[in-house]
Structure formats: structure tokens, C-alpha cells
């Protein structure tokens, strides 16, 4: 062992010499739990977490640890069957992953050659598409969403179809987020179809439906994006148990695609991606807790309507974005009012998410719909700003 072993600066020097250069200064995903790491449960419980779009409420699950000495199945059958029943697709169209985040990573690793291929994102959008791409050495092409005023005079963020068309041939994967995070609005299915058709021969189109269950619009039978999997070869849908199922800590998500795409992704994923206890809990949630999940979604949607109305009445708030998800995005009049709102909440241990660094979201903050008690605590505090 050299005399410099375990010295922080020598390890830094070694990393600089050996690691991929672009990772050294890369900023990782700023997750709530990374930004406000709390160390112990007591400290974590003293905070009100309204920044990561988690759902309130917990289920009760039984675990059988009898076979824990064995590796789990590559894709536990009971879990696939349960999700197949839920999403109405055959098990051959489903890959269970460690959260939808792992699905994003697998898709990029499977379709993009490092330092050669690119993904396309439509900001403002979920941060992990760009971070996973960067991690893999794929370039990120951006075609920002555009604001469209709808018939009932709401401003909605929609796709820039002309801008997207100009990128056909330049990218291997297109990420669409619907309902969008952090915007909250559902993309019209006509737009999603147009993008799938436009990239039919040149790119996979990923429709990230992490917030699918909260969609309140008439999601008629024809509107369901999973149906597009049998109509088009280049469609992938992402789902998760982290939101409506209130199982963010479980890390369980699903990638839905043609059997051929699932077979390809299965070559890239780890050999035992879903730990046995995770599969057990997830299967129970998908079998026994569907009614509880629906009740949770209904409460969140009712709370969302109330929070929307309340925000619209606040003098410091100049815009509330229509949301089909378990969070509300709003804009403050200016930077100083945005900081005042955010800081007052942080000082009182209520954590919401500052989105103001995203394109088009100057002075915007996002509140996750926690429990009714948590939201009323937040409102009470902010009412002191009047
Ligand atoms: C749009 C979107 N996709 C994917 C994810 C990741 O979900 P998971 O917890 O299943 O990894 C999130 C998490 O916030 C999200 O907002």
C-alpha cells in the first residue's frame, strides 16, 4: 500500500485520472432525500415532506421471509400477473423495475450508443431523463413545451410538434411526460400519437405515466396510451407504484412495451432486479389495495381543487398551472415573493420544491398533495403573509 493510500486528495486525484471525465463535475439528481438528508427517522418525521410527490397514508403488508436464502425470480410471476390484471396488458409486455427511474435508465442504455446517440426531452420536465442520459454519455436535445391557451382560457403546456419534427433522425429516444412533472398537465393523446408516428422509423417514444392514476380528464377508453403499444412498434409506457399506490419507498415500477422491446431491455437489466420482499408487497398492493388506492387518488384530487382555488386568491401568486397529478405548480409575482414563500415554509419544516430554475418556470414552486392536515398547516402559515 502506498503512503498516500486513503488520503482524500490522493483518492480525488486517482478518480480524476481514472473516472469518466464528465462525471467528475456532474451534478446528480437533487432529490428531496438527498437535499434534506435527515440521518434518523425522528428528524425525518419532524418535517412535512411536500416536495417529492409522494402520497400520504400507508398500507399494511405481510412478509414471508422463508425463501430469503434464495435469489428471487428474474421477474416474479405473481407480481407480473398482478400488474397485468391492473394495466390490462399481457405479462409479455411488462418489465418490473426498481422504480420507473430504472426503466428510464434501461431504455437509454438499450437504445443509445454512448458518445454517439441522443435523447430528446421537452422541458420543463422530469430531471432524470437528462441525468440518466448524461450518465450514459448520451446527448440531450431539448424541444421545450409551449404554452397554449385552451377554450376555457386555461394555459396548458403542450408539445411543439414543429420543433419535434425538426429533430426526426437526430435522436434515438423521445421522452414525453403525461401528466407532466412539474407542469401537471396531461398531453392530448392526438399530440402523443403524432409524435409516435413522426418518429416511427427513427426513435422510441417513451410516455412517462408516473401520475397516470391522478388524471381527472375524461380518460375515455380510446385515450389510454398503453393501447398504443399494440398499434405502434416504437411506444414504451412507464408506470410506478411510487405515487398513487403510496409505495415510493418500495422502489417498484413497470416498463410496458412490445414483447420484443421487453426482451431487449431484459438483456440490460440486472439479473435479479426485484428483491423478493418488494415483489411480495407490490403484489399485495396490486391485488388487495386497489380500492384504497382509488380513495387516496380521489382525496388528492379533491384537495388539489381546494389548493388551486386557495392559491388563486393569494396576492403573491400570479398563476396556478392546471394539474392532473398529485401536485400543484404555481408562480409567484417575483423572485423575492417566491423566496419569501419558500423560506417561510422551510423555516417551519415544510419542504416544497423550487422549480424556478427550469425553463419557463421563473418564480415557480411546486407543492405535493400530502394529507389534508399537512396542506391546511401550509395554508395557515402562508396566510400570515397577507
Ligand atoms: C415523471 C416521473 N417519472 C418517473 C419518476 C420516478 O418514479 P419512481 O419512484 O418509480 O422511480 C418520477 C418521480 O418523481 C416522476 O415524477
Write the layout of secondary structure elements.
Blueprint: H1 8-18, H2 21-24, H3 32-35, H4 41-45, E1 48-49, H5 77-87, E2 94-97, H6 99-111, E3 118-121, H7 128-136, E4 139-142, E5 146-149, E6 155-158, H8 161-165, E7 173-177, H9 189-198, E8 204-208, H10 228-231, E9 235-240, E10 253-256, H11 259-268, H12 276-288, H13 290-312, E11 317-320, E12 327-332, H14 335-347, E13 350-351, E14 353-354, E15 364-368, H15 372-383
Parallel strand pairs: 1-13, 3-4, 3-7, 7-8, 8-9
Antiparallel strand pairs: 2-10, 5-6, 9-10, 11-12, 12-15, 14-15
Helix pairs in contact: 5-12, 6-7
The protein binds pyridoxal-5'-phosphate (PLP).
Pyridoxal-5'-phosphate binds at residues 53, 99-101, 126, 177, 181, 208, 210, 240, 242, 248, 253.
Brief overview, please?
This protein has 386 residues and is an alpha/beta fold. The protein folds into two domains: 32-56 and 291-382, Aspartate Aminotransferase, domain 1; 77-287, Aspartate Aminotransferase, domain 2 (3-Layer(aba) Sandwich). It is built from 15 helices and 15 strands.
Amino acid at each position: 500500500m502506498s503512503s498516500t493510500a486513503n488520503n482524500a486528495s490522493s483518492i480525488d486525484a486517482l478518480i480524476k485520472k481514472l473516472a469518466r471525465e464528465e462525471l467528475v463535475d456532474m451534478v446528480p439528481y437533487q432529490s428531496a432525500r438527498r437535499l434534506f438528508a435527515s440521518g434518523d427517522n425522528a428528524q425525518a418525521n419532524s418535517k412535512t415532506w411536500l416536495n417529492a410527490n409522494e402520497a400520504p397514508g400507508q398500507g399494511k403488508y405481510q412478509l414471508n421471509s422463508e425463501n430469503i436464502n434464495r435469489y428471487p425470480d428474474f421477474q416474479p410471476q405473481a407480481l407480473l400477473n398482478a400488474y397485468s390484471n391492473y394495466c390490462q396488458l399481457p405479462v409479455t409486455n411488462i418489465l418490473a423495475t426498481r422504480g420507473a427511474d430504472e426503466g428510464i435508465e434501461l431504455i437509454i442504455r438499450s437504445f443509445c450508443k454512448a458518445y454517439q446517440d441522443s435523447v430528446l426531452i421537452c422541458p420543463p420536465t422530469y430531471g432524470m431523463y437528462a441525468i440518466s442520459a448524461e450518465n450514459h454519455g448520451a446527448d440531450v436535445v431539448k424541444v421545450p413545451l409551449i404554452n397554449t391557451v385552451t377554450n376555457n382560457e386555461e394555459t396548458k403546456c403542450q408539445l411543439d410538434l414543429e420543433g419535434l419534427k425538426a429533430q426526426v433522425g437526430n435522436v434515438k429516444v423521445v421522452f414525453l411526460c403525461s401528466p407532466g412533472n412539474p407542469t401537471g398537465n396531461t398531453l392530448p393523446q392526438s399530440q402523443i400519437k403524432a409524435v409516435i408516428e413522426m418518429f416511427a422509423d427513427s426513435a422510441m417514444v417513451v410516455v412517462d405515466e408516473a401520475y397516470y392514476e391522478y388524471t381527472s380528464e375524461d380518460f375515455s377508453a380510446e385515450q389510454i396510451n398503453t393501447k398504443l403499444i399494440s398499434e405502434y412498434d416504437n411506444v414504451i409506457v412507464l408506470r410506478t407504484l411510487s405515487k398513487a399506490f403510496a409505495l415510493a419507498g418500495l422502489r417498484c415500477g413497470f416498463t410496458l412495451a412490445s414483447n420484443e422491446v421487453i426482451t431487449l431491455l431484459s438483456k440490460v437489466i440486472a439479473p435479479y432486479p426485484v428483491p423478493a420482499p418488494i415483489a411480495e408487497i407490490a403484489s399485495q398492493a396490486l391485488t388487495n389495495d386497489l380500492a384504497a388506492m382509488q380513495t387516496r387518488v380521489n382525496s388528492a384530487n379533491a384537495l388539489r381543487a381546494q389548493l388551486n382555488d386557495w392559491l388563486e386568491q393569494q396576492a403573491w401568486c400570479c398563476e396556478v398551472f392546471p394539474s392532473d397529478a398529485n401536485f400543484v405548480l404555481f408562480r409567484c409575482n417575483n423572485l423575492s415573493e417566491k423566496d419569501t414563500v419558500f423560506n417561510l415554509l422551510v423555516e417551519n419544516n415544510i419542504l416544497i420544491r423550487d422549480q424556478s430554475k427550469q425553463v419557463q418556470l421563473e418564480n415557480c414552486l411546486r407543492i405535493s398533495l400530502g394529507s389534508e392536515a399537512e396542506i391546511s398547516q401550509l395554508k395557515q402559515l402562508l396566510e400570515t403573509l397577507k
